[in-house]
Amino acid sequence: MPSKIKPTVVKEFSFFEDVFDVVRQIPKGRVSTYGAIANYLGTKLSARMVGWAMNASHNAQMKVPAQRVVNRNGMLTGKAHFATPTLMEELLKKDGVEVKNDTVVDFKNIFWDPLIELQTSLPIP
DNA sequence: CGTGTGACCGGCG
DNA sequence: ACGCCGGCCACAC
Questions:
Q1: Please, which of A2, A46, A47, A124 could form a disulfide with A35 given CB 3.0 to 4.6 Å?
Q2: Is residue A102 part of a domain?
Q3: Given phi > 0 = left and psi -120 to 50 = alpha, else beta, which region is A60?
Q4: What is the mean pLDDT of each run of 10 residues along chain A (125 residues)?
């Protein structure tokens, strides 16, 4: 869980790490969106931050399946930031996700929402 | 410590 | 339907 603590030594877990954590939990064959992740982290109005965090995913020590994060339309907007322009699509296809015209096919169906899938506590049933 | 920027999103004309 | 514009927040310079 994200903590607002401000350690004096080093920032053990930053916003980036939180984002990476969520992205790593995206199951194979599913995709999520920047907005959904941002929403899960509490900053739903700042989906840009998530995307920006992904920009630093290259720097992350642990691999981050950034290919599973697309925009709300299911478009591979971040493919340009991969090593090659086709890498993102290739990785998704390896995951079993069909991509056509830079857009995830059946996106609505395989959409993975952390708010739902990682629901830690339900409001009152 | 001010400013710019970003792999976005939703609303409005 | 489509394009534009403002907002949001963390981080680098």
A1: A47
A2: yes
A3: beta
A4: 40 82 95 95 91 91 93 93 93 96 93 87 50
